[in-house]
C-alpha cells in the first residue's frame, strides 16, 4: 500500500516523512549516510581510493606522468581531474561523450583543486621549464545514488593522500630524466577540503546528503566545500529555490561538523595502511 | 492607430543608462541594456556591464522533442556561446548555473510539454569569468521579460571580489578580479533578495561570505531599479 502511494505521489509520500523530521531510510534531516573508504586498492595506479556514501560509490585513481610545464608558468605542474558517470552507475546515463552532469562535476572538482590549493603546483615541478609531473585524477562512479559531489571530493582527497611519486633526477650529461622507483615519497597535501551537500525542499527545508530519489524531488541543491580552518573553498549553488543568509549559516555549521567527521575517518584509514 | 504605436515600440529599441561610474553611493560600473533588437526570437536583450557585453535571445514556449518533454512543466534550455572557440566544459557549467536559476523563477507549470530556449552569445569579454556570468544572468532575465515568459520574480547577477587584505569590491574590473583572493558571483531575486545561485572562486571565510552577500543584496537594488526604469521607459505612452 505504501509502495503504491510512493509511486503515484512521490512528493506527498516524502512530505509525510519530513513532517516527522525524518526520512524514508530512517535518517534524521542532518544525518549523513554510512561513509566507508578504502585506500590503495588499485595496484597499477600511483594512488587510489574507493569511497562509499551509503550506496553511492566513487573510485578515484591517480596516475603520474611527465610533461613539459606550461610556458606561462614554467615552475608549475598539472593536476587534471576527470569525472566519469558511465551507464553502469545509473540508467539515466547513456554511453558516448560525457553528458552535462559529468562535465559539471569535472568542473566542480577542478575548481575545488584550484581554490583550496590542496597541492602546491610548484611541488610538482622537477626541472623548471623542462619537466614537471602531471597528475591525472580519474573519478569513476560505480553506483549513483545521489550526492555525487561529496563522494568525488572525498575520493580525490583520499587518493591524493595515497599517491607516492618516485624520485626523479635529471642526468647532467644526457639531460634525460632518471626515475628511481625504489625511493618514493608522498605528496605534500596542504589542506583537506571536505564537501557537504544539501537539498532544498519546498523552498524551506534543508536536508543533508540527499539520495538519488531525494535529489530528483528537491527544488534546489547546495554544496559547501570547507577546509580545516573553516575557510570556504567553494559555495556551489546551481540555481533552485532561494535561500536566506540565516539558512546559509545553519548549513555552514553543519559543514564544520562534517569536516571533523571526515577528517577523523581519513586519519584512521591512513594510519591503518601497512607501509609497502 | 494602435498598430502604429505597436510598431513604433518595436522599432525604437530602448537603451537604459545605468548608474554613473564608481561613486560613493553606488559602486557598480556603468551598465546599459537594449531590448527587442532581434527579429526572429520571441524575446531578445543585450546587456552591457563595464567592458563585458552579452546578447541573449529567447524562443518559447515552443515545441519540444518527445525525449525531452516534461509532462507538467516547461523544459528550459540554455545555450551559451563563447566569444572565440568552441564551447567547452566551462560553458557547460555556466549553462547549468543559468538554467537552474531560470528554472527557479520561470512559471514552467503554466506551459507544460513545451520548451523555452535561452541562447546567449558573448559579444565582448574582458577575460573575466565571474563578470561574464553576472552579465549573462542579467541579459537572460531581460530577454525572458521581453519574450513575455511568465516569471514569479526577476533576478540579477552581482559579482564581488575580496582582496588579500579583506576589502570588498563590488563589480570588479578584470584586473582586480585576477589579483583578488576570492571572487563570488551571486544571483538574487527581486522579491525577497534571496540567494538563488552562487558560484565562487578562491578561499574565503564564513563572515566574509555574509558580508559579500549583504553587499550584493544592496547592489542588486540598483540593478532592479534600472530594470524597472528601462521597462517603464519602453512601455510608457510618450
UniProtKB/TrEMBL annotation, chain A:
Residues 31-166, 193-256 form the Exoribonuclease phosphorolytic domain. It is found in: Cytoplasm; Nucleus, Nucleolus. One of its GO terms (biological process) is nuclear polyadenylation-dependent rRNA catabolic process. Keywords: Acetylation, Cytoplasm, Exosome, Nucleus, RNA-binding, rRNA processing. The keyword rRNA processing applies. One of its GO terms (molecular function) is mRNA 3'-UTR AU-rich region binding. GO terms for cellular component: cytoplasmic exosome (RNase complex); nuclear exosome (RNase complex); nucleolus. It comes from the Eukaryota. InterPro entries: ExoRNase_PH_dom1 (IPR001247), ExoRNase_PH_dom2 (IPR015847), ExoRNase_PH_dom2_sf (IPR036345), Exosome_comp_Rrp42_subfam (IPR050590), PNPase/RNase_PH_dom_sf (IPR027408), Ribosomal_Su5_D2-typ_SF (IPR020568), Rrp43 (IPR033196). It holds the Pfam family RNase_PH. SUPFAM superfamilies: Ribonuclease PH domain 2-like, Ribosomal protein S5 domain 2-like. PANTHER family: EXOSOME COMPLEX COMPONENT RRP43, EXOSOME COMPLEX EXONUCLEASE RIBOSOMAL RNA PROCESSING PROTEIN. Belongs to the RNase PH family. This is Exosome complex component RRP43.
Automatic annotation (TrEMBL), chain B:
Residues 1-24 are annotated as: Disordered. The keyword DNA-binding applies. Gene3D superfamilies: GHMP Kinase, N-terminal domain (3.30.230.70). One of its GO terms (cellular component) is euchromatin. Belongs to the RNase PH family. PANTHER family: EXOSOME COMPLEX COMPONENT, EXOSOME COMPLEX COMPONENT RRP46. Residues 28-150, 154-218 form the Exoribonuclease phosphorolytic domain. The keyword Nucleotide-binding does not apply. The lineage of its organism: Eukaryota, Metazoa, Chordata, Craniata, Vertebrata. This is Exosome complex component RRP46. Keywords: Cytoplasm, DNA-binding, Exosome, Nucleus, Phosphoprotein, rRNA processing.
Amino acid at each position: 500500500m505504501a509502495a503504491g502511494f510512493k509511486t503515484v505521489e512521490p512528493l506527498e509520500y516524502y512530505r509525510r516523512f519530513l513532517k516527522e523530521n525524518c526520512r524514508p531510510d530512517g535518517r534524521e534531516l542532518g544525518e549523513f549516510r554510512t561513509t566507508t573508504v578504502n585506500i590503495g586498492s588499485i595496484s597499477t595506479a600511483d594512488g587510489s581510493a574507493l569511497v562509499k556514501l551509503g550506496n553511492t560509490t566513487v573510485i578515484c585513481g591517480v596516475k603520474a606522468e611527465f610533461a613539459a610545464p606550461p610556458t606561462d608558468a614554467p615552475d608549475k605542474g598539472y593536476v587534471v581531474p576527470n569525472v566519469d558517470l558511465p551507464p553502469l552507475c545509473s540508467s539515466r546515463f547513456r554511453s558516448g561523450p560525457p553528458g552535462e552532469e559529468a562535465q559539471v562535476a569535472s568542473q566542480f572538482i577542478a575548481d575545488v583543486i584550484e581554490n583550496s590549493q590542496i597541492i602546491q603546483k610548484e611541488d610538482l615541478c622537477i626541472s623548471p621549464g623542462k619537466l614537471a609531473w602531471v597528475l591525472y585524477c580519474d573519478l569513476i562512479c560505480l553506483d549513483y545514488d545521489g550526492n555525487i559531489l561529496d563522494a568525488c571530493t572525498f575520493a580525490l582527497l583520499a587518493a591524493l593522500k595515497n599517491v607516492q611519486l618516485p624520485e626523479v633526477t635529471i642526468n647532467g650529461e644526457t639531460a634525460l630524466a632518471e626515475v628511481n622507483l625504489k625511493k618514493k615519497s608522498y605528496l605534500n597535501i596542504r589542506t583537506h577540503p571536505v564537501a557537504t551537500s544539501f537539498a532544498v525542499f519546498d523552498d524551506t527545508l534543508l536536508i543533508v546528503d540527499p539520495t538519488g530519489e531525494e535529489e530528483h524531488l528537491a527544488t534546489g541543491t547546495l554544496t559547501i566545500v570547507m577546509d580545516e580552518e573553516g575557510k570556504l573553498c567553494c559555495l556551489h549553488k546551481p540555481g533552485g529555490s532561494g535561500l536566506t543568509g540565516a539558512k546559509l549559516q545553519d548549513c555552514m555549521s553543519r559543514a564544520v561538523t562534517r569536516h571533523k567527521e571526515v577528517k577523523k575517518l581519513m586519519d584512521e584509514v591512513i594510519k591503518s595502511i601497512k607501509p609497502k | 492607430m494602435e498598430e502604429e504605436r505597436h510598431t513604433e515600440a518595436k522599432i525604437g529599441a530602448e537603451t537604459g543608462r545605468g548608474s554613473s561610474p564608481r561613486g560613493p553611493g553606488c559602486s557598480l560600473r556603468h551598465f546599459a541594456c537594449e531590448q527587442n533588437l532581434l527579429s526572429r526570437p520571441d524575446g531578445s536583450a543585450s546587456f552591457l556591464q563595464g567592458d563585458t557585453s552579452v546578447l541573449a535571445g529567447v524562443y518559447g514556449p515552443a515545441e519540444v522533442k518527445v525525449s525531452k518533454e516534461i509532462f507538467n512543466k516547461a523544459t528550459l534550455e540554455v545555450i551559451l556561446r563563447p566569444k572565440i572557440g568552441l564551447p567547452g566544459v566551462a560553458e557547460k557549467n555556466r549553462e547549468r548555473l543559468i538554467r537552474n536559476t531560470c528554472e527557479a523563477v520561470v512559471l514552467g507549470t503554466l506551459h507544460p510539454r513545451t520548451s523555452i530556449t535561452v541562447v546567449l552569445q558573448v559579444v565582448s569579454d574582458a577575460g573575466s569569468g565571474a563578470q561574464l556570468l553576472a552579465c549573462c544572468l542579467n541579459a537572460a532575465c531581460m530577454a525572458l521579460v521581453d519574450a513575455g515568459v511568465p516569471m514569479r520574480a526577476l533576478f540579477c547577477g552581482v559579482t564581488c571580489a575580496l582582496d588579500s587584505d579583506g576589502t570588498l569590491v563590488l563589480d570588479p574590473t578584470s584586473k582586480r578580479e585576477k589579483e583578488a583572493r576570492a571572487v563570488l558571483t551571486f544571483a538574487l531575486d527581486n522579491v525577497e533578495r534571496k540567494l538563488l545561485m552562487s558560484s565562487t572562486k578562491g578561499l574565503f571565510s564564513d563572515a566574509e561570505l555574509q558580508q559579500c552577500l549583504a553587499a550584493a543584496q544592496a547592489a542588486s537594488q540598483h540593478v532592479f531599479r534600472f530594470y524597472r526604469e528601462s521597462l517603464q521607459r519602453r512601455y510608457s505612452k510618450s
